[in-house]
Write a structure and sequence with these properties.
Shape of chain B: globular
Helix content of chain A: 25-40%
Number of helices of chain B: 16
Largest interface: A-B, 50 and 66 residues
Number of strands of chain A: 2
Strand order of the largest sheet of chain A: 1-2
Number of strands of chain B: 12
Number of domains of chain B: 1
Strand content of chain B: 5-15%
CATH architecture of one domain in chain A: Orthogonal Bundle
CATH topology of one domain in chain A: Histone, subunit A
Oligomer: heterodimer
Chain lengths: 97, 480
Amino acid sequence: MALSKKDVEHIALLARLGLTEAEKEKFAQQLSSILEYVEQLKEVNTDGVEPTAQVTGLENVMRADEMAVRPKAEMEKLIKMAPESEDNLIKTRSVFE
Amino acid sequence: MQLNELTISQAHEGLKKKDFSSVELTKACLEQIKKTDDKIKAFITVTEDIALQQAKVADKAGDFSNPLTGIPHAPKDVFCTKDIRSTGASKILDNYIPPYSATAVEKLNELRGVILGKVNCDEFAMGGSGENSGYFVTKNPWDLERVPGGSCSGSAAAVASDMCLYSLGTDTGGSIRQPAGFCGITGLKVTYGRVSRYGVMAMASSLDTIGTFAKNVEDAAIILKHIAGRDKNDSTTPEVKVDDYSAEMKKSIKGLKIGLPKEYFIDGMDPEVKDLVYKAVKKLEELGAKVVDISLPYTAKAVAVYYIICPSEVSSNLARYDGIRYGMSEESDKLIDIYQNTRSKYLGAEAKRRIMIGTYALSAGYYDAYYKKGMQVRTLVRNDFKQAFDKVDIMVTPTSPTPAFKIGENANDPLKMYLADVFTVPASLAGICGISIPAGFSNNLPVGLQILGKPFAESTILRAAYNYQQATEWHKKKPL
């Protein structure tokens, strides 16, 4: 599956990756050859085959619906890690413009 | 013998008998790091003060009844270690200091283990050579112009060159087994879910496993006993009994049925590797095992399945690195620019490649053709193993098609790099356990033997591997 520069730009936007022009060209080539390789799976007959999402077989591993109290010092450490914070909240740019 | 050259077992005996202290043992490792790491470059962060402090605590308590107490180790940098910088070998976490430790690390901390520092790897565990690290390329101690393997490049190099007595790593498609093979040491990949992944930077959540690098099988068994088990913080750890691996491994392998999957012994593979593996199988037969020919027909499709599923899951797991809550961040007025600029500046090429393949494979219109198809063929690969394990107890294969390649040899060809994973990837898709042990040398480079076992049958593969190491000396050889 050959990817065009426009395809790469679309994927990069979905993935929130800013790419340089040189990167777009390089990746278009490399991604195309990788995708071409994985396309061989088209030839495999998978009629009636269940997809494997996970191998443990576990389902609905639950815990009690209780709030655990974490130490204040830990919470402060976490908030401090963000580039910007205010009133014990992490601050970001507006999502909707 | 220098203290840092000891195995965990040997060091444990010495500490118990008070032949030496944990501080002395730790100092020997730190000395070795100072002497050799300029050349090898296994460590991203060395924690000299913390290590000596931890060793002092172990010595002061004076209780060395547990074999891991006072023993110096260095986890792969994808493990969160509380208050110790953890980068995942990515520049995007260059400044990240976790407020908590991974469960596996915490278990070792509770036993008063000693953390020497954090070792290098491919960025977020993505790679098969170590060349994708955001920091520097770790060298193979057996030949400094060659790769140590990946993604656990630093772990393998550090253990092989006696800078630490063991290292925790992760294996998603072969990242423990392959470098262990390239560096002549023992690398254990556990069954998916055997060891908690809590606190380990996620790469592919249905494939990631936590495992060990050790100087021999005896040590691997010791570590496994202490890190395996159900963890309420990781719901993919089933409630399965943790065996007494150290006792189980010593049992005989008489009558053990070994499968040789014909798809792993193909034309065009390195003849010396093939030869060494056949010799190893002969040795196992001498020890009482029986060889059965088997077939895993979907082997040739496994790499393609892996390189759809893995990048898809990667694209999801790496979305959290967005410059908002932690890690490096590029300032901007617009949110979209923060995301794009942060990720483009600080993520490496392989990370970007996999994110993009995954994004494409999961995107509208392509999900069925790629990800769903991949999951279905994964079922077929898994069934191959299920059926074969009805006939045999373990399988033996080469770990890699060749010994360690030269730095730069595959760096410009991502697809060629992926194809080198051909022998390790299928077991990852099936979620089974596997171990790579030294089986000889080709042109003075280590060659690894891979032993695969049924889910949660680590005891069986450790038993085969231990018996082999009792009858051979490959694992005792050290790089000059």
